[in-house]
């Protein structure tokens, strides 16, 4: 996708997961641009500049009010569900019937069209909407600054456990994802493709630990684990199927699957993607 007419389309954007890592930033950017935003979440939490609305993927009774008058929708599949298409696709078909013209799906760089989880939604999306995009970001830089397991381990013990070995990742800033999402949702012409989003550099988890230590002034180490130990560790915290999927993603990183950078953020927004150190400094290291 290249930059096109930046004059935004009118109408309301429904942001699902409006208090989440990308959704909260997207709501802020849309509101700052003068766009009408409906912030959807299970608790209808107030979001500055947006109209809050209750929304639960597993409660279809909440869907009509969320969709009322919406022209576009930002879709974050239910977190932790290994087969989200079962609830997401009926909702998207309902959205199209209700008059939603464009849908932007948040997937992941590790998940190809037709792959597991959001990959099934990705494959079906062009058959539901004429105007669409799939955002496939690499792993979030905010995994080391927020409530993610990586950040928790670093804050509590100065240790980050993965099964990634020496594999590298083009970590991306959630703010950059939101900036691309704004364009994908509101530009006159929809991308009608998937967009792989990364930061400007590929880093190993040893590199990440070193940068976090430098920025925060506290010792941080990356401790690689064999896949079976990583899977067992995650299974104590989440459904076993989801733990297995995350471990498999770590193994893919170890094999080089995420060792890449793209120029998509610059191509879409007109500015370069932010680097990991600057994001850490902006968000207060691993205390965010």
Defining key terms:
alpha/beta, two-stranded parallel ribbon, 39% helix
Topology of this protein?
Elements: E1 12-16, H1 21-32, E2 36-41, E3 51-54, H2 63-67, E4 70-75, H3 85-97, E5 102-106, H4 118-128, E6 131-137, H5 149-157, E7 159-162, E8 168-169, H6 174-186, E9 194-197, E10 203-204, H7 205-216, E11 221-224, H8 227-235, H9 240-254, H10 264-269, H11 276-283
Parallel strand pairs: 1-2, 1-4, 2-3, 4-5, 5-6, 6-9, 7-11
Antiparallel strand pairs: 8-10
Can you describe this structure?
This protein has helices at 21-32, 63-67, 85-97, 118-128, 149-157, 174-186, 205-216, 227-235, 240-254, 264-269, 276-283; strands at 12-16, 36-41, 51-54, 70-75, 102-106, 131-137, 159-162, 168-169, 194-197, 203-204, 221-224. It is globular, with a radius of gyration of 19 Å. Helix 4 links the parallel strand 5 (102-106) and strand 6. It is built from eleven helices and eleven strands.
> What percentage of residues falls in helices of 4 or more residues?
25-40%
Total DSSP helices: 11
Described by the principal axes of the CA atoms, the overall outline is globular
Write down the overall mean pLDDT: 94
Low-confidence stretches: none
Q: What would you call the structural class?
A: alpha/beta
Summarize the biggest pleated sheet: 7 strands, parallel
The amount of beta strand, in percent, is: 15-25%
Distance between the termini: 33 Å
Strand order, biggest sheet? Answer: 3-2-1-4-5-6-9
- Rg from C-alpha positions? 19 Å
Oligomer: single chain
For the secondary structure, the number of strands is 11
Give me the strand/helix succession. EHEEHEHEHEHEEHEEHEHHHH
């Amino acid at each position: 996708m290249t930059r096109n007419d930046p004059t935004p389309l009118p109408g309301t954007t429904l942001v699902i997961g409006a208090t989440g890592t990308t959704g909260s930033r997207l709501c802020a950017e849309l509101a700052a641009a003068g766009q009408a935003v409906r912030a959807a979440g299970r608790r209808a939490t107030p979001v500055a500049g947006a109209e809050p609305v209750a929304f639960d993927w597993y409660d279809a009774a909440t869907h009509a009010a969320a969709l009322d008058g919406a022209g576009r929708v930002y879709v974050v599949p239910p977190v932790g569900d290994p087969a989200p298409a079962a609830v997401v696709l009926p909702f998207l078909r309902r959205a199209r019937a209700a008059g939603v013209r464009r849908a932007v799906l948040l997937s992941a760089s590790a998940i190809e069209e037709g792959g597991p989880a959001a990959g099934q939604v990705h494959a079906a999306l062009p058959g539901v909407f004429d105007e669409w995009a799939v955002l496939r970001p690499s792993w979030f830089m905010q995994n080391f600054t927020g409530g993610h397991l990586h950040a928790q381990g670093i804050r509590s013990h100065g240790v980050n456990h993965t099964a990634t070995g020496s594999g590298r990742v083009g970590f991306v800033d959630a703010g950059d994802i939101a900036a691309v999402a704004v364009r994908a949702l509101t530009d006159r012409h929809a991308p009608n493709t998937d967009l792989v989003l990364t930061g400007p550099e590929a880093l190993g988890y040893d590199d990440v630990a070193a940068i976090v230590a430098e920025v925060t002034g506290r010792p941080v180490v990356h401790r690689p684990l064999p896949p079976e130990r990583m899977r067992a560790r995650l299974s104590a915290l989440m459904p076993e199927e989801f733990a297995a999927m995350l471990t498999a993603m770590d193994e893919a990183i170890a094999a080089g699957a995420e060792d890449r950078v793209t120029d998509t953020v610059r191509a879409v927004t007109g500015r370069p993607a932010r680097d990991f150190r600057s994001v850490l400094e902006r968000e207060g290291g691993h205390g965010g």
